[in-house]
TrEMBL record:
<dbReference type="InterPro" id="IPR025714">
    <property type="entry name" value="Methyltranfer_dom"/>
</dbReference>
<comment type="function">
    <text>S-adenosyl-L-methionine-dependent protein-lysine N-methyltransferase that mono- and dimethylates elongation factor 1-alpha at 'Lys-316'. May play a role in intracellular transport.</text>
</comment>
<dbReference type="GO" id="GO:0016192">
    <property type="term" value="P:vesicle-mediated transport"/>
</dbReference>
<dbReference type="GO" id="GO:0005737">
    <property type="term" value="C:cytoplasm"/>
</dbReference>
<dbReference type="GO" id="GO:0016279">
    <property type="term" value="F:protein-lysine N-methyltransferase activity"/>
</dbReference>
<dbReference type="InterPro" id="IPR026635">
    <property type="entry name" value="Efm4/METTL10"/>
</dbReference>
<keyword id="KW-0808">Transferase</keyword>
<feature type="domain" description="Methyltransferase">
    <location>
        <begin position="58"/>
        <end position="198"/>
    </location>
</feature>
<protein>
    <recommendedName>
        <fullName>Protein-lysine N-methyltransferase EFM4</fullName>
        <ecNumber>2.1.1.-</ecNumber>
    </recommendedName>
</protein>
<keyword id="KW-0489">Methyltransferase</keyword>
<dbReference type="InterPro" id="IPR029063">
    <property type="entry name" value="SAM-dependent_MTases_sf"/>
</dbReference>
<keyword id="KW-0963">Cytoplasm</keyword>
<comment type="similarity">
    <text>Belongs to the class I-like SAM-binding methyltransferase superfamily. EFM4 family.</text>
</comment>
<keyword id="KW-0813">Transport</keyword>
<dbReference type="Pfam" id="PF13847">
    <property type="entry name" value="Methyltransf_31"/>
</dbReference>
<dbReference type="GO" id="GO:0032259">
    <property type="term" value="P:methylation"/>
</dbReference>
<keyword id="KW-0949">S-adenosyl-L-methionine</keyword>
Protein backbone atom coordinates (compact mmCIF):
# COMPACT_ATOMS: atom_id res chain seq x y z
CA UNK A 1 0.00 0.00 0.00
CA UNK A 2 1.29 3.44 -0.97
CA UNK A 3 1.96 6.27 1.49
CA UNK A 4 2.80 9.93 0.98
CA UNK A 5 6.55 9.31 0.96
CA UNK A 6 6.31 7.69 -2.46
CA UNK A 7 6.96 4.20 -1.08
CA UNK A 8 5.03 1.04 -0.20
CA UNK A 9 4.74 -1.27 2.74
CA UNK A 10 6.49 -4.61 2.18
CA UNK A 11 4.25 -7.48 1.15
CA UNK A 12 4.33 -11.21 0.52
CA UNK A 13 4.66 -10.34 -3.19
CA UNK A 14 8.25 -9.39 -2.37
CA UNK A 15 9.09 -12.76 -0.81
CA UNK A 16 10.62 -15.76 -2.58
CA UNK A 17 8.65 -18.30 -0.50
CA UNK A 18 5.44 -16.69 -1.79
CA UNK A 19 6.49 -17.09 -5.43
CA UNK A 20 7.76 -20.65 -4.85
CA UNK A 21 4.33 -21.65 -3.55
CA UNK A 22 2.53 -19.80 -6.38
CA UNK A 23 4.56 -21.65 -9.02
CA UNK A 24 4.28 -24.99 -7.16
CA UNK A 25 0.53 -24.59 -7.58
CA UNK A 26 0.80 -23.44 -11.20
CA UNK A 27 3.08 -26.40 -12.04
CA UNK A 28 0.41 -28.80 -10.72
CA UNK A 29 -2.32 -26.95 -12.62
CA UNK A 30 -0.27 -27.07 -15.81
CA UNK A 31 0.28 -30.83 -15.42
CA UNK A 32 -3.42 -31.43 -14.76
CA UNK A 33 -5.11 -28.99 -17.14
CA UNK A 34 -2.48 -27.49 -19.46
CA UNK A 35 -3.28 -23.99 -18.10
CA UNK A 36 -0.02 -21.98 -18.19
CA UNK A 37 -1.11 -19.86 -15.20
CA UNK A 38 -1.26 -16.13 -14.62
CA UNK A 39 -0.13 -13.72 -17.33
CA UNK A 40 0.69 -10.75 -15.12
CA UNK A 41 -1.31 -7.59 -16.12
CA UNK A 42 -3.11 -9.64 -18.81
CA UNK A 43 -2.58 -10.59 -22.45
CA UNK A 44 -3.21 -7.07 -23.79
CA UNK A 45 -0.29 -5.58 -21.83
CA UNK A 46 2.04 -8.44 -22.86
CA UNK A 47 0.94 -7.90 -26.47
CA UNK A 48 1.81 -4.17 -26.29
CA UNK A 49 5.30 -4.94 -24.96
CA UNK A 50 5.81 -7.46 -27.77
CA UNK A 51 4.62 -4.89 -30.35
CA UNK A 52 7.12 -2.35 -29.00
CA UNK A 53 9.94 -4.90 -29.31
CA UNK A 54 8.88 -5.94 -32.83
CA UNK A 55 8.76 -2.28 -33.93
CA UNK A 56 12.13 -1.32 -32.41
CA UNK A 57 14.42 -4.35 -32.01
CA UNK A 58 15.99 -6.69 -34.60
CA UNK A 59 15.01 -10.36 -34.39
CA UNK A 60 18.71 -11.27 -33.87
CA UNK A 61 18.84 -9.36 -30.57
CA UNK A 62 19.84 -11.19 -27.37
CA UNK A 63 16.91 -10.62 -25.00
CA UNK A 64 16.59 -11.27 -21.25
CA UNK A 65 13.23 -11.38 -19.43
CA UNK A 66 13.88 -10.83 -15.71
CA UNK A 67 11.46 -12.58 -13.35
CA UNK A 68 9.91 -14.38 -16.31
CA UNK A 69 7.36 -16.43 -14.34
CA UNK A 70 5.74 -18.90 -16.76
CA UNK A 71 7.78 -17.46 -19.67
CA UNK A 72 4.73 -16.27 -21.63
CA UNK A 73 6.30 -12.96 -22.76
CA UNK A 74 9.32 -14.71 -24.31
CA UNK A 75 7.14 -17.31 -26.00
CA UNK A 76 5.22 -14.47 -27.65
CA UNK A 77 8.57 -13.10 -28.89
CA UNK A 78 9.65 -16.55 -30.10
CA UNK A 79 6.42 -16.54 -32.09
CA UNK A 80 7.66 -13.29 -33.73
CA UNK A 81 10.90 -14.99 -34.88
CA UNK A 82 13.16 -13.80 -32.05
CA UNK A 83 15.72 -16.54 -31.45
CA UNK A 84 18.12 -15.45 -28.68
CA UNK A 85 15.78 -15.46 -25.71
CA UNK A 86 16.69 -16.06 -22.07
CA UNK A 87 14.18 -16.04 -19.21
CA UNK A 88 15.28 -15.96 -15.58
CA UNK A 89 13.52 -16.18 -12.25
CA UNK A 90 14.69 -16.74 -8.68
CA UNK A 91 11.97 -19.32 -8.17
CA UNK A 92 13.15 -22.76 -9.36
CA UNK A 93 9.47 -23.71 -9.73
CA UNK A 94 8.88 -20.78 -12.12
CA UNK A 95 11.87 -21.83 -14.22
CA UNK A 96 10.57 -25.40 -14.34
CA UNK A 97 7.08 -24.21 -15.34
CA UNK A 98 8.51 -21.94 -18.08
CA UNK A 99 10.60 -24.84 -19.45
CA UNK A 100 7.57 -27.15 -19.52
CA UNK A 101 5.33 -24.53 -21.18
CA UNK A 102 8.00 -23.74 -23.81
CA UNK A 103 8.51 -27.43 -24.54
CA UNK A 104 4.76 -28.00 -24.91
CA UNK A 105 4.63 -25.17 -27.47
CA UNK A 106 7.74 -26.37 -29.33
CA UNK A 107 9.93 -23.33 -28.55
CA UNK A 108 13.62 -23.65 -27.62
CA UNK A 109 13.80 -20.69 -25.22
CA UNK A 110 16.45 -20.90 -22.47
CA UNK A 111 15.21 -20.58 -18.87
CA UNK A 112 17.59 -20.41 -15.91
CA UNK A 113 17.48 -19.64 -12.20
CA UNK A 114 18.83 -16.21 -11.30
CA UNK A 115 18.42 -13.89 -8.35
CA UNK A 116 18.47 -10.53 -10.11
CA UNK A 117 19.64 -8.88 -6.89
CA UNK A 118 22.80 -11.03 -6.76
CA UNK A 119 25.72 -9.42 -8.66
CA UNK A 120 27.27 -12.88 -9.14
CA UNK A 121 24.07 -14.26 -10.67
CA UNK A 122 23.73 -11.20 -12.89
CA UNK A 123 27.31 -11.58 -14.18
CA UNK A 124 26.87 -15.34 -14.70
CA UNK A 125 23.74 -14.98 -16.83
CA UNK A 126 24.88 -11.89 -18.77
CA UNK A 127 28.28 -13.41 -19.61
CA UNK A 128 30.85 -11.35 -21.48
CA UNK A 129 28.39 -10.80 -24.32
CA UNK A 130 25.59 -9.26 -22.19
CA UNK A 131 22.10 -8.52 -23.59
CA UNK A 132 20.77 -6.15 -26.23
CA UNK A 133 17.46 -5.93 -24.37
CA UNK A 134 16.25 -6.50 -20.80
CA UNK A 135 12.49 -6.91 -20.26
CA UNK A 136 10.61 -6.66 -16.97
CA UNK A 137 6.88 -7.18 -16.49
CA UNK A 138 5.99 -6.96 -12.81
CA UNK A 139 9.36 -8.00 -11.36
CA UNK A 140 10.58 -4.56 -10.28
CA UNK A 141 7.13 -4.10 -8.68
CA UNK A 142 7.70 -7.29 -6.65
CA UNK A 143 11.24 -6.24 -5.72
CA UNK A 144 9.95 -2.87 -4.48
CA UNK A 145 7.82 -4.85 -1.98
CA UNK A 146 10.67 -7.01 -0.63
CA UNK A 147 10.71 -6.86 3.19
CA UNK A 148 13.93 -6.21 5.11
CA UNK A 149 13.24 -9.39 7.13
CA UNK A 150 10.70 -12.19 6.75
CA UNK A 151 7.90 -10.46 8.68
CA UNK A 152 8.98 -6.83 8.40
CA UNK A 153 6.71 -4.14 6.94
CA UNK A 154 9.68 -2.01 5.83
CA UNK A 155 10.79 -2.38 2.23
CA UNK A 156 14.40 -3.46 1.66
CA UNK A 157 15.71 -0.24 0.11
CA UNK A 158 19.00 -1.99 -0.66
CA UNK A 159 17.14 -4.25 -3.09
CA UNK A 160 15.40 -1.28 -4.70
CA UNK A 161 18.76 0.38 -5.33
CA UNK A 162 20.58 -2.74 -6.54
CA UNK A 163 17.95 -3.45 -9.21
CA UNK A 164 18.94 -0.65 -11.70
CA UNK A 165 22.60 -1.63 -11.32
CA UNK A 166 21.68 -5.22 -12.22
CA UNK A 167 19.84 -3.94 -15.31
CA UNK A 168 22.85 -1.88 -16.41
CA UNK A 169 25.27 -4.76 -15.77
CA UNK A 170 23.08 -7.08 -17.86
CA UNK A 171 23.02 -4.72 -20.85
CA UNK A 172 25.51 -4.14 -23.65
CA UNK A 173 26.52 -0.54 -24.32
CA UNK A 174 23.42 1.28 -25.63
CA UNK A 175 21.27 -1.73 -24.69
CA UNK A 176 17.53 -1.25 -24.20
CA UNK A 177 15.40 -1.80 -21.09
CA UNK A 178 11.61 -2.14 -21.40
CA UNK A 179 9.64 -2.24 -18.16
CA UNK A 180 5.97 -2.50 -17.25
CA UNK A 181 4.83 -1.60 -13.75
CA UNK A 182 1.52 -1.25 -11.95
CA UNK A 183 3.05 0.41 -8.89
CA UNK A 184 4.90 3.27 -10.52
CA UNK A 185 3.76 5.85 -13.08
CA UNK A 186 5.72 6.53 -16.27
CA UNK A 187 7.27 9.65 -14.75
CA UNK A 188 8.20 7.82 -11.55
CA UNK A 189 9.93 5.08 -13.56
CA UNK A 190 11.84 7.68 -15.59
CA UNK A 191 12.97 9.39 -12.38
CA UNK A 192 13.90 6.12 -10.65
CA UNK A 193 16.19 4.96 -13.47
CA UNK A 194 17.50 8.40 -14.49
CA UNK A 195 21.01 7.86 -13.12
CA UNK A 196 21.73 4.99 -15.47
CA UNK A 197 19.14 4.97 -18.25
CA UNK A 198 17.55 7.55 -20.54
CA UNK A 199 13.91 7.31 -21.55
CA UNK A 200 13.44 6.58 -25.27
CA UNK A 201 9.75 5.73 -25.43
CA UNK A 202 6.47 5.17 -23.61
CA UNK A 203 3.72 2.68 -24.47
CA UNK A 204 0.13 3.84 -24.13
CA UNK A 205 -2.28 1.62 -22.22
CA UNK A 206 -5.98 1.85 -21.47
CA UNK A 207 -6.55 4.95 -19.33
CA UNK A 208 -9.07 5.88 -16.67
CA UNK A 209 -10.35 9.21 -15.40
CA UNK A 210 -10.66 9.77 -11.67
CA UNK A 211 -11.39 13.08 -9.95
CA UNK A 212 -10.61 14.94 -13.18
CA UNK A 213 -7.17 13.33 -13.54
CA UNK A 214 -6.40 10.85 -16.30
CA UNK A 215 -4.22 7.86 -15.39
CA UNK A 216 -3.20 4.45 -16.69
CA UNK A 217 -3.58 1.18 -14.79
CA UNK A 218 -0.06 0.16 -15.83
CA UNK A 219 2.95 2.05 -17.19
CA UNK A 220 5.41 0.78 -19.81
CA UNK A 221 8.59 2.77 -20.43
CA UNK A 222 11.55 2.07 -22.72
CA UNK A 223 15.07 3.18 -21.79
CA UNK A 224 18.51 3.12 -23.36
CA UNK A 225 21.62 2.54 -21.27
CA UNK A 226 23.49 5.80 -20.86
CA UNK A 227 27.10 6.00 -21.98
CA UNK A 228 29.42 6.75 -19.05
CA UNK A 229 30.14 10.27 -20.35
CA UNK A 230 26.41 11.07 -20.81
CA UNK A 231 25.69 10.48 -17.11
CA UNK A 232 24.33 13.68 -15.57
C1 LIG B 1 4.56 -10.19 -10.64
S1 LIG B 1 5.42 -11.66 -11.07
C2 LIG B 1 5.62 -11.39 -12.83
C3 LIG B 1 5.94 -12.66 -13.58
C4 LIG B 1 6.09 -12.48 -15.10
N1 LIG B 1 7.11 -11.47 -15.42
C5 LIG B 1 4.78 -12.09 -15.74
O1 LIG B 1 4.68 -11.00 -16.29
O2 LIG B 1 3.85 -12.89 -15.71
C6 LIG B 1 7.04 -11.27 -10.43
C7 LIG B 1 8.09 -12.30 -10.75
O3 LIG B 1 9.36 -11.82 -10.31
C8 LIG B 1 10.08 -12.91 -9.76
N2 LIG B 1 11.11 -12.30 -8.89
C9 LIG B 1 10.91 -11.53 -7.79
N3 LIG B 1 12.08 -11.16 -7.25
C10 LIG B 1 13.06 -11.67 -8.04
C11 LIG B 1 14.47 -11.63 -8.00
N4 LIG B 1 15.14 -11.00 -7.03
N5 LIG B 1 15.15 -12.25 -8.98
C12 LIG B 1 14.49 -12.92 -9.96
N6 LIG B 1 13.15 -13.03 -10.03
C13 LIG B 1 12.44 -12.39 -9.09
C14 LIG B 1 9.01 -13.75 -9.07
O4 LIG B 1 9.41 -15.08 -8.82
C15 LIG B 1 7.87 -13.65 -10.09
O5 LIG B 1 7.96 -14.66 -11.06
Amino acid sequence: MRDNSDSFEASRLGRKDHWDSVYDRELSNFAETGDIGEVWFGEDVAHKMVRWVVDNIDTGARILDVGCGNGHLLLELANEEYTQLVGTDYSAQAVELAKQVAQSQGFGVEFVEQDFLSPMDVARVAGAERFDVVLDKGTYDAICLKPTDADAVQVDQGAVHIYPVSVVNSLKDSGVFLITSCNWTEDELVARFADHLECIGRVKHRSFKFGGAVGQTVATVAFRKKQPDSKQ
